[in-house]
Amino acid sequence: MKKYLKITFLMILFLLIIYIIYVFAFKNYIFYSSHIEVAIPIFAKMQEIDTHGGFHGDGESYVKVYFSDNQAEKFISKIKTNIHWQELPMPEILQKHNTINEEIKIPEIEKGYWFFIDRHNKTINKYDYSGIFDRASYNYSIAVFDTFSNILYYYALDT
Fold first, then answer.
1. Fewer Cβ within 10 Å of end Cβ, the chain: N or C?
2. Residue 132 C-beta-side C-alpha neighbours within 13 Å
3. What is the pLDDT along the chain (159 residues), one digit of tens a residue?
4. DSSP assignments along 63-100, one per residue
């Protein structure tokens, strides 16, 4: 009986360790991949600034993901198959409103692809950006992939 208890305890401990590894290592990759509709490679270097946590979870997220040449090549091929990713230039309305905080602004990029999704709960077409600034609150994400430097920039605003 003690042997079964030890085995059960070790299995629970093993599953707990796997869960902790998942939470700390892969959660952000899966979360941001779901927002941009293209999988971000798990082992790409990611830098994140997140100011969420205010009233009702308001805040900004700014993420830079650095791709190797091989990762970038695969990522671009996936972008090209997604109809919601567009070649740059990005519409002027989105260029002007891709941040509140100037320190975490997506830089101007000449060659690459952009993606927009409106995450507001009252949106009709989540890919339409034309009326997002006619509301009292904003919940949207903008992603830009720079094909020259192989960097993905992701910005999300929740007000």
1. N
2. 25
3. 678 888 888 899 999 988 887 777 777 888 888 889 999 988 888 888 877 666 666 778 889 999 999 999 999 999 999 999 999 888 877 776 656 666 677 888 889 999 999 887 777 888 888 877 777 778 888 999 999 999 999 998 887
4. EEEEPPHHHHHHHHHHHHH-TT-EESPPPHHHHHTS-S
